[in-house]
Amino acid sequence: MTAATSSLPRHAIVREVGLRDGLQSIATVVPTAHKLEWLRAAVAAGQTEIEVGSFVPARLLPQMADTAQVLAFAKTLPGLFASVLVPNLRGAEQALAGDADLMILPLSASHAHSLANLRKTPDEVVAELGRIRAARDASGRKTLIEGGVGTAFGCTLQGRVEPAEVLRLMQALLDAGADRVSLADTVGYADPASVSRLFEQALKIAGERLSCGHFHDTRGLALANVHAALLLGIARFDASLAGIGGCPYAPGASGNAATEDLAFMLEAMGIHTGLDIPALLALRARVAGWIAGEPTHGTLWRAGLPKTFAATAA
Amino acid sequence: MTAATSSLPRHAIVREVGLRDGLQSIATVVPTAHKLEWLRAAVAAGQTEIEVGSFVPARLLPQMADTAQVLAFAKTLPGLFASVLVPNLRGAEQALAGDADLMILPLSASHAHSLANLRKTPDEVVAELGRIRAARDASGRKTLIEGGVGTAFGCTLQGRVEPAEVLRLMQALLDAGADRVSLADTVGYADPASVSRLFEQALKIAGERLSCGHFHDTRGLALANVHAALLLGIARFDASLAGIGGCPYAPGASGNAATEDLAFMLEAMGIHTGLDIPALLALRARVAGWIAGEPTHGTLWRAGLPKTFAATAA
């Protein structure tokens, strides 16, 4: 350990979002049976946190129509912490009915993106989080609530998003009852310096309740951005197997950080993830087969693990 | 500026190696006229340091047979600092004859790789550097000598390469008369933590004479590795337009860090490069046309610059 690496966490969690952010972004509707197979294999490969779907109306996202069924299966898998995306109170009620471990309410710090995507202002989303918190508390469920602040580094519609506005909304989500918050570079506008600046400020507000970083690889910087956040002690990152998903405004460009590449980077750095990378690569190949014709990303699957890897990780 | 970014350099140089590391790795032999056009356009896009070729026997690398001619043209371009790779004293004599600004002697810290690639042990390469230094001093030329320590993070043949051996060889190169040294992750085995550790140690030995980092993107970590080195104040990085070149042991995998993606990352971080990124993207498209059918890499060319970019960089 050196001065340059002394602040790195010893353990980190790669939260799989391929079944939600990945599958909702592609035209192929993956059958429920394949989703369950994915979940089973992901858990066998050591994944402990998976976003299994989204409780949005099926007419808007038919890819997510089976979320209740997928969540029910996820709850049977020992050791799996299953999260779902909920766009509103109605979705949250479904998450509570399914006893999700975590529900994530997305908020867009970009007003333009918020109105276009969620048809609400960011502050209306904050108010919705308050209602979700009340519903959760009334339900007796232990489902945690995460407020996910998206377009936190800029927006393809609005352009610049003020960090002060991102931080104000993060504070507002916590005040409204979020158990945790996260920051997302929804459109791949972040760079390691802006990640350092924003996460450093966000940590001052949220401390350990700042639970996750979500970086898209649209311009190739996802892993560099993860590195910047790691150096601040952030130890949970969203990623999707084969890097699927992402930004509809940049066709052909990568989506999320690829789970397998991120897992490799972390393990190579000596940061324990509990993940079995060869098993992830095998699962990646199966998933890529299920969504044949859809763009996939990532580099490790081509190059393979370095000859030195076992020694490094051990 | 925050604690997390305070150590970043304000300026950085992206040294173009596409004409050497890139073109020598592909089967297509790019005509000299295209190389000169590439050089002219690269300088117009703000590139100030370019590795223009390699003085190796033409029967070994026909792609590099016109290096003397390309170097002669490069020397006519105002403001361009032109370097060449030289595998031995014979190559160095050609570099001196052509009045190169810099000659780079590659040394493989992996003994297995050194014997396979250079047919010399690393210490024999150190001795060759001593002879090159004597030849340079006798010539009256101002050509600088860089000792490039490759396979510094591991090797596909040998596996592990001991950091202590990398550092010993770096010191030996300096002792033998190298003006500068650089560290290269020839096969894409580095990660941000190993980069931090090795560069931190190397800086203790070489100080400002540690002039450059060379990272391959074989496993997607090139830009994260650059970020780790930037945080130690390293401010020069090799890269190739369209990410061409790279590792013959990982077919299909990315080669070098892509010039245009690296330039974007640096400028987005507020680190001045002097590069005109749209001009680089335009040149990338032309180069990709000249080498049609060869694999190219990088992400920025697909996604384009963020809407916020001009404001960020200004």
TrEMBL record, chains A, B:
InterPro entries cross-referenced by the UniProt entry? AIPM/Hcit_synth_CS, Aldolase_TIM, HMGL, PYR_CT
* Superkingdom: Bacteria
The record's listing under Pfam families reads:
HMGL-like
Identify the keywords attached in UniProt to this record, alphabetized: Lyase, Metal-binding, Transferase
CDD domains, per this entry? DRE_TIM_HMGL
GO MF annotations for this entry? lyase activity
Q: Mind telling me which PROSITE patterns this protein's record contains? A: AIPM_HOMOCIT_SYNTH_1, PYR_CT
Q: Is this entry keyworded Lipoprotein?
A: no
Please tell me whether the keyword Zinc is annotated for this protein: no
All copies of the Pyruvate carboxyltransferase domain together span 12-281
Family that this chain belongs to = Belongs to the HMG-CoA lyase family. Belongs to the alpha-IPM synthase/homocitrate synthase family.
Q: What is this protein called?
A: Hydroxymethylglutaryl-CoA lyase
Q: Which species does this protein come from?
A: Ottowia pentelensis
Upper classification of the source organism reads:
Bacteria, Pseudomonadati, Pseudomonadota, Betaproteobacteria, Burkholderiales
